[in-house]
Specification:
This protein is an alpha/beta fold. The chain has one domain: Rossmann fold (3-Layer(aba) Sandwich). It has 9 helices and 9 strands. It has helices at residues 25-32, 36-52, 68-76, 89-98, 133-143, 163-167, 176-185, 201-209, 228-246; strands spanning 2-3, 6-8, 58-62, 81-86, 103-106, 118-124, 144-155, 188-196, 256-263. A 9-stranded mixed beta sheet has the order 1-2-5-4-3-6-7-9-8, with helices on both faces.
Length: 268
């Protein structure tokens, strides 16, 4: 079956608003390429992919949204087989424009139609939207070839919970030890777990915990509409932070967590 021209494995959920607001996708697609956080996160993900899984020839992105991460991987690794899934058909339209060569599927991340197929499986700020995140991690593990890798990013620190999280349909923000346990329970061996967006954590605390975040007219995309010079400055700060991470330093606190993990060669 297909939905909006994409092979569909969960067509009954293609227009659902659980997990994300479909109306935001068009504006989000326009904002991502200009926003410092999305740009810096892309560079971190691409670096982690190339550094830890240099021999990878295929990647599945679970919950690809509008395809911004996928497009970054496609530019850095043009020879790689790219497959991406998303529950929202509206988002897949944008992903198809960004990465025409990728295989795009509409499906439920809790039920992936793959078994030991991809060298690397990634989910980038996705599982915090899903109540049963453990099921998603188990399915990601099943889709990974033995010896293959997993990349994951999520928002960190429950104390940062704010109106932004509610409007973004987050279910949770993670503690590092909690995420470590979930990834290990899914069957992965953790190679690296570190915070990022650490140097900007004080600014993030001020922004997220400010009283105006509780207003009824709060706009969750407002903080993405930065003017040019703040974007440039903040992006430079995160570039500096990525340089620290490249040295092997693990940061203990930050707005987000990065996990790099591997499926054992002998995993069932």
């Amino acid at each position: 079956m297909s939905v909006a021209g994409f092979a569909a494995f969960a067509p009954e959920l293609a227009a659902a608003s659980d997990g994300f607001e479909p109306a935001f996708f068009a504006e989000l697609a326009n904002l991502e390429a200009r926003n410092f956080w999305f740009r810096a996160r892309n560079r971190l993900i691409v670096w982690a992919l190339e550094h830890y899984f240099s021999g990878a020839r295929s990647l599945l992105e679970v919950g690809c949204g509008t395809g911004f991460v996928l497009s970054g991987v496609a530019r850095a690794q043009p020879q790689m087989r790219l497959c991406a899934s998303e529950i929202h058909a509206n988002a897949l339209r944008h992903a198809a424009q960004r990465v025409p060569a990728a295989e795009l599927l509409q499906l439920d991340a809790r039920r992936l139609p793959f078994d030991r197929e991809f060298d690397v499986v990634g989910a980038f700020d996705v599982i915090e939207h899903i109540e049963d995140d453990d099921a998603v991690l188990r399915e990601m593990h099943r889709a990974t070839v033995p010896g293959g890798g997993m990349l994951l990013t999520v928002p960190q620190h429950p104390f940062l919970w704010s109106e932004y999280d509610r409007r973004a349909h987050h279910v949770r923000r993670y503690r590092a030890h909690e995420l470590r346990g979930k990834v290990a329970a899914a069957g992965y061996e953790i190679l690296r777990l570190t915070s990022f967006v650490s140097l900007l954590l004080p600014l993030m605390m001020i922004s997220r915990l400010a009283g105006h975040n509780r207003r009824e007219d709060y706009d969750p995309l407002a903080e993405l509409r930065l003017k040019s010079w703040p974007n440039i400055v903040l992006e430079k700060v995160l570039d500096l932070e990525r340089g620290l991470l490249k040295t092997g330093l693990n940061l203990p606190a930050g707005g987000s967590l990065l996990v790099v993990a591997r499926r054992s060669l002998h995993a069932p």
